[in-house]
Specification:
358 residues, Rossmann fold, Tyrosyl-Transfer RNA Synthetase, three-stranded parallel sheet, 14 helices, 7 strands, globular, binds adenosine monophosphate, binds tryptophan
């Protein structure tokens, strides 16, 4: 019986953190037995923001090492570097011709990145009135927003189309990701349907795969923002490479809500997030954790949480050390050779549909 296909990827930019693991990689590991799995290090996506070449090479291998140390088995899955399969970029170009500006302008990741640091303050607009340049102070958010969007790189704007190409190239049925990527998968579905309607059935329509609790791990310093490698403060995240002392320090400093009881509730978003992390790493349900800490306070809870995180991170980091660069590159190259025929077949089909001579 043919297994269903899953595909996912992570950008090699910045340190991976607990949110990446709990929101995405942990699910990949779980799904790899049941599904035909393809996992990618998406370096073409990473260059949509400036990268240092040497650092990019380093991080590409490091992300692959994280996949492996987390338990992704290269015998069961295909693991490769996106830029090794040029069909991704080619298909993205073709999908560009059916994507609309309005589809992409709706993408919140793009808007967030384009608007980074923007708080709608006043600005000075130079305006030509009757031949004279006038400096006009403005508070027109729209004018200023538009200006920020005009300045943003085309690659960043087009990022979701490349992601759609990644997914559609392999007849992917499920895409295991965190919540922030679900909108991009909706767009992938839109593009696939549009293409199929215009040129005939070509693409499988994929669905996102998220888990209720892990899909949105929030920042330790601010439970209203997601845990993110680009956060301003290192107290926002626990990096998978943090040492024991750093983990303890960060958890100790993590913000909590008012009151002192350990209660799993939407009224206590900071604590809820910490309980989620606790629960996901220990496989103990949140309600059970509540019971355990009845009559105890934040200090006890945080000490145990730090121990739980450390007992996950320690063996993980030991495993990380087992992989040297050559070994990982060998795995990645072998993975690329496994998926190359699939990518070529699908792209040829697309080219034929479009009317290219192949
Ligand atoms: P990124 O680091 O943004 O490239 O994300 C890589 C994967 O991790 C994607 O599937 C994201 O949705 C997921 N992810 C990133 N941050 C979080 C988070 N704070 N909580 C849950 N999943 C996340
Ligand atoms: N955009 C995803 C992120 O930032 C990474 C990604 C690229 C991806 N291509 C993908 C995820 C295809 C799933 C499937 O996390």
């Amino acid at each position: 019986m043919n297994k269903k296909r899953i595909f996912s990827g992570i950008q090699p930019s910045g340190n991976l953190h607990l949110g990446n693991y709990l929101g995405a990689i942990k699910n990949w590991v779980k799904l790899q037995d049941e599904y035909d799995s393809i996992f990618c290090v998406v370096d073409l996506h990473a260059i949509t923001v400036p990268q240092d070449p040497e650092r990019l090479r380093r991080q590409t291998l490091d992300v692959a090492k994280v996949y492996l140390a987390s338990g992704i088995d290269p015998e069961k899955c295909s693991l490769f570097i996106q830029s090794h399969i040029s069909e991704h970029a080619e298909l993205a170009w073709m999908l560009n011709t059916i994507a609309k500006m309005q589809d992409l302008l709706k993408m919140s990741q793009f808007v967030d990145k384009a608007m980074k640091g923007f708080d709608g303050r006043r600005g000075v607009l130079k305006k030509k009135i009757e031949g004279q340049i006038i400096n006009r102070e403005v508070l027109f958010e729209e004018e200023t927003e538009q200006y920020l969007i005009y300045k943003t790189g085309v690659g960043l704007f087009d990022y979701p189309v490349l992601m759609a190409a990644d997914i559609l190239l392999y007849d992917t049925e499920l895409v295991p990701v965190g919540k922030d990527q679900v909108q991009h998968i909706e767009l992938t579905r839109t593009l696939a349907n549009r293409f199929n309607k215009k040129f005939g059935d070509t693409f499988v329509i994929p669905k996102p795969y998220t888990t209720e609790v892990g899909q949105n791990i929030m920042g330790l310093d601010d439970p209203t923002k997601k845990m993110s490698k680009s956060a301003a403060s290192e107290y926002n995240y626990i990096a998978l490479t943090d040492d024991k002392e750093t983990v303890k320090r960060k958890i100790k400093k993590a913000v909590t809500d008012s009151g002192s009881e350990i209660i799993y509730s939407n009224d206590k978003p900071a604590l809820k997030n910490l309980i989620n992390i606790y629960s996901l790493l220990s496989d103990i349900p949140a309600k059970e954790i509540e019971k355990r800490y009845k009559g105890k306070g934040y200090a006890d809870f945080k000490t145990d949480l730090a121990d739980i995180v450390v007992s996950f991170i320690r063996p993980f980091q030991e495993k990380l050390k087992e992989y040297d660069d050559e070994k990982v590159l060998e795995i990645l190259r072998a993975g690329a050779e496994k998926v190359r025929p699939l990518a070529k077949k699908k792209l040829d089909e697309v080219k034929k549909r479009i009317g290219f001579i192949i």
